[in-house]
Specification:
This protein is α+β, with helices and mostly antiparallel strands. 19% of the residues lie in helices and 42% in strands. The chain has two domains: 101 residues, no CATH class; 97 residues, no CATH class. It has one helix and 14 strands; from the N terminus they run H-E-E-E-E-E-E-E-E-E-E-E-E-E-E.
Amino acid sequence: MPSRLLIWTGVILLAVPATAREENWRADALEKAQDYHAANLPPLCMEPDTSETEPPSFELQVGEETAARQALIVEFPCQIGAYSQTAVYLLSDQQGTVSQIVFPAPKFDVNYVGGEESAGVDTIVVYETPYLREVVNPSYDPSSRTMSERNKWRGLGDAYTETRWQFKNGKFEITYFAVDATFDGKDDPIVLIERDIW
Protein backbone atom coordinates (compact mmCIF):
# COMPACT_ATOMS: atom_id res chain seq x y z
CA MET A 1 0.00 0.00 0.00
CA PRO A 2 2.72 2.59 0.83
CA SER A 3 4.52 1.97 -2.48
CA ARG A 4 1.32 2.49 -4.49
CA LEU A 5 0.66 5.75 -2.67
CA LEU A 6 4.15 7.02 -3.53
CA ILE A 7 3.72 6.18 -7.20
CA TRP A 8 0.33 7.92 -7.42
CA THR A 9 1.61 11.00 -5.61
CA GLY A 10 4.57 11.17 -7.99
CA VAL A 11 2.27 11.35 -10.99
CA ILE A 12 0.39 14.28 -9.48
CA LEU A 13 3.57 16.17 -8.64
CA LEU A 14 4.86 15.78 -12.17
CA ALA A 15 1.61 17.01 -13.73
CA VAL A 16 1.28 20.21 -11.70
CA PRO A 17 4.63 21.82 -12.64
CA ALA A 18 3.94 21.13 -16.34
CA THR A 19 0.66 23.00 -16.14
CA ALA A 20 2.28 25.83 -14.22
CA ARG A 21 5.04 26.12 -16.80
CA GLU A 22 2.43 26.26 -19.58
CA GLU A 23 0.70 29.20 -17.89
CA ASN A 24 3.87 30.97 -16.78
CA TRP A 25 5.52 31.24 -20.19
CA ARG A 26 2.62 33.35 -21.46
CA ALA A 27 2.75 35.69 -18.48
CA ASP A 28 6.54 35.94 -18.72
CA ALA A 29 6.44 36.54 -22.48
CA LEU A 30 3.85 39.27 -22.08
CA GLU A 31 5.79 40.98 -19.29
CA LYS A 32 9.02 40.88 -21.29
CA ALA A 33 7.24 42.40 -24.30
CA GLN A 34 5.82 45.22 -22.18
CA ASP A 35 9.23 45.95 -20.66
CA TYR A 36 10.87 45.91 -24.09
CA HIS A 37 8.28 48.25 -25.56
CA ALA A 38 8.65 50.75 -22.71
CA ALA A 39 12.44 50.73 -23.04
CA ASN A 40 12.47 50.92 -26.85
CA LEU A 41 9.50 53.16 -27.61
CA PRO A 42 9.31 54.07 -31.33
CA PRO A 43 9.68 57.87 -31.86
CA LEU A 44 6.08 58.47 -32.94
CA CYS A 45 4.38 56.17 -30.44
CA MET A 46 2.54 57.37 -27.35
CA GLU A 47 3.90 56.52 -23.92
CA PRO A 48 2.39 53.27 -22.60
CA ASP A 49 -0.24 53.70 -19.90
CA THR A 50 0.68 51.29 -17.14
CA SER A 51 -2.74 51.71 -15.52
CA GLU A 52 -4.49 50.12 -18.49
CA THR A 53 -5.23 46.43 -18.86
CA GLU A 54 -2.67 44.20 -20.51
CA PRO A 55 -2.16 44.72 -24.26
CA PRO A 56 -3.84 42.42 -26.79
CA SER A 57 -1.80 39.32 -27.56
CA PHE A 58 -2.16 36.37 -29.91
CA GLU A 59 -0.55 32.97 -29.42
CA LEU A 60 1.17 31.17 -32.27
CA GLN A 61 3.80 28.55 -32.93
CA VAL A 62 7.08 29.65 -34.48
CA GLY A 63 9.20 27.13 -36.39
CA GLU A 64 8.47 23.63 -37.51
CA GLU A 65 8.38 20.23 -35.82
CA THR A 66 11.17 19.74 -33.22
CA ALA A 67 12.41 23.34 -33.54
CA ALA A 68 8.98 24.81 -32.83
CA ARG A 69 8.46 27.17 -29.92
CA GLN A 70 5.42 28.94 -28.53
CA ALA A 71 5.23 32.70 -28.85
CA LEU A 72 2.95 35.70 -28.50
CA ILE A 73 2.32 38.51 -30.95
CA VAL A 74 1.79 41.51 -28.65
CA GLU A 75 0.07 44.67 -29.89
CA PHE A 76 0.85 48.19 -28.66
CA PRO A 77 -1.06 51.32 -29.72
CA CYS A 78 1.09 53.95 -31.36
CA GLN A 79 -0.76 56.93 -32.91
CA ILE A 80 -4.43 57.88 -32.82
CA GLY A 81 -5.83 60.25 -35.44
CA ALA A 82 -9.23 61.48 -36.57
CA TYR A 83 -10.03 58.40 -38.67
CA SER A 84 -6.98 56.18 -38.34
CA GLN A 85 -4.89 54.64 -35.62
CA THR A 86 -1.64 52.73 -35.74
CA ALA A 87 -0.06 49.96 -33.73
CA VAL A 88 3.31 48.25 -33.45
CA TYR A 89 3.94 44.60 -32.63
CA LEU A 90 6.48 42.51 -30.77
CA LEU A 91 7.12 38.77 -30.93
CA SER A 92 7.85 37.37 -27.46
CA ASP A 93 8.53 33.64 -27.12
CA GLN A 94 8.72 31.02 -24.40
CA GLN A 95 12.52 31.11 -24.48
CA GLY A 96 12.55 34.73 -23.30
CA THR A 97 13.40 36.31 -26.66
CA VAL A 98 11.64 39.52 -27.70
CA SER A 99 11.93 40.92 -31.22
CA GLN A 100 10.33 43.67 -33.26
CA ILE A 101 7.88 42.64 -35.97
CA VAL A 102 8.27 44.49 -39.26
CA PHE A 103 6.01 44.49 -42.31
CA PRO A 104 6.99 44.95 -45.98
CA ALA A 105 5.11 48.10 -47.05
CA PRO A 106 5.16 49.11 -50.73
CA LYS A 107 5.83 52.73 -51.62
CA PHE A 108 4.36 53.88 -54.91
CA ASP A 109 3.64 56.73 -57.28
CA VAL A 110 0.17 57.35 -58.70
CA ASN A 111 -0.02 58.83 -62.19
CA TYR A 112 -3.40 60.34 -62.98
CA VAL A 113 -4.79 60.79 -66.48
CA GLY A 114 -3.72 64.21 -67.64
CA GLY A 115 -2.25 64.87 -64.20
CA GLU A 116 -5.74 65.43 -62.75
CA GLU A 117 -7.01 63.32 -59.83
CA SER A 118 -10.59 63.69 -61.03
CA ALA A 119 -9.70 62.22 -64.44
CA GLY A 120 -8.91 58.78 -63.06
CA VAL A 121 -5.79 56.66 -62.54
CA ASP A 122 -3.40 56.03 -65.42
CA THR A 123 -0.73 53.91 -63.68
CA ILE A 124 0.46 53.01 -60.19
CA VAL A 125 4.16 52.19 -59.91
CA VAL A 126 5.73 50.56 -56.85
CA TYR A 127 9.30 51.84 -56.54
CA GLU A 128 10.44 50.26 -53.26
CA THR A 129 9.21 48.06 -50.43
CA PRO A 130 10.76 49.04 -47.10
CA TYR A 131 10.03 47.26 -43.84
CA LEU A 132 7.96 49.31 -41.41
CA ARG A 133 6.83 48.69 -37.85
CA GLU A 134 3.55 50.60 -37.76
CA VAL A 135 0.33 49.07 -39.09
CA VAL A 136 -2.56 51.44 -39.84
CA ASN A 137 -6.04 50.43 -38.62
CA PRO A 138 -4.76 46.90 -37.97
CA SER A 139 -6.72 43.69 -37.68
CA TYR A 140 -5.19 40.28 -36.91
CA ASP A 141 -6.79 36.90 -37.63
CA PRO A 142 -5.12 34.19 -35.50
CA SER A 143 -6.68 31.32 -37.45
CA SER A 144 -4.93 32.27 -40.71
CA ARG A 145 -2.06 34.22 -39.11
CA THR A 146 -3.05 37.20 -41.23
CA MET A 147 -2.47 40.84 -40.38
CA SER A 148 -4.59 43.34 -42.33
CA GLU A 149 -4.25 47.08 -42.79
CA ARG A 150 -6.60 49.61 -44.34
CA ASN A 151 -4.92 52.99 -44.58
CA LYS A 152 -7.56 55.62 -45.33
CA TRP A 153 -6.44 58.74 -47.19
CA ARG A 154 -9.44 60.68 -45.90
CA GLY A 155 -12.32 60.14 -43.51
CA LEU A 156 -14.76 59.10 -46.23
CA GLY A 157 -12.57 56.06 -46.89
CA ASP A 158 -13.05 56.04 -50.65
CA ALA A 159 -9.30 56.45 -51.25
CA TYR A 160 -6.97 54.10 -49.40
CA THR A 161 -4.39 51.35 -49.49
CA GLU A 162 -5.21 47.87 -48.25
CA THR A 163 -2.49 45.39 -47.31
CA ARG A 164 -2.49 41.86 -45.93
CA TRP A 165 0.44 39.84 -44.59
CA GLN A 166 0.68 36.22 -43.46
CA PHE A 167 3.08 34.94 -40.81
CA LYS A 168 5.39 32.20 -42.08
CA ASN A 169 8.95 31.13 -41.28
CA GLY A 170 9.16 33.58 -38.41
CA LYS A 171 8.07 36.70 -40.29
CA PHE A 172 5.16 38.40 -42.02
CA GLU A 173 5.12 38.17 -45.81
CA ILE A 174 2.92 40.33 -48.00
CA THR A 175 0.08 38.48 -49.73
CA TYR A 176 -2.19 41.31 -50.88
CA PHE A 177 -1.76 44.98 -51.73
CA ALA A 178 -4.33 47.22 -53.40
CA VAL A 179 -4.62 50.95 -53.98
CA ASP A 180 -7.78 52.98 -54.48
CA ALA A 181 -6.38 56.33 -55.57
CA THR A 182 -9.59 57.88 -56.88
CA PHE A 183 -11.46 60.34 -54.65
CA ASP A 184 -14.78 59.48 -56.24
CA GLY A 185 -16.84 58.12 -53.36
CA LYS A 186 -16.53 54.58 -54.76
CA ASP A 187 -14.71 51.48 -53.56
CA ASP A 188 -12.74 50.52 -56.68
CA PRO A 189 -9.14 49.61 -55.83
CA ILE A 190 -6.44 48.42 -58.22
CA VAL A 191 -4.87 45.18 -56.94
CA LEU A 192 -1.10 45.22 -57.36
CA ILE A 193 -0.14 42.13 -55.33
CA GLU A 194 -2.19 39.00 -54.70
CA ARG A 195 -0.59 35.69 -53.84
CA ASP A 196 -0.87 32.68 -51.58
CA ILE A 197 2.21 31.75 -49.56
CA TRP A 198 0.92 28.51 -48.03
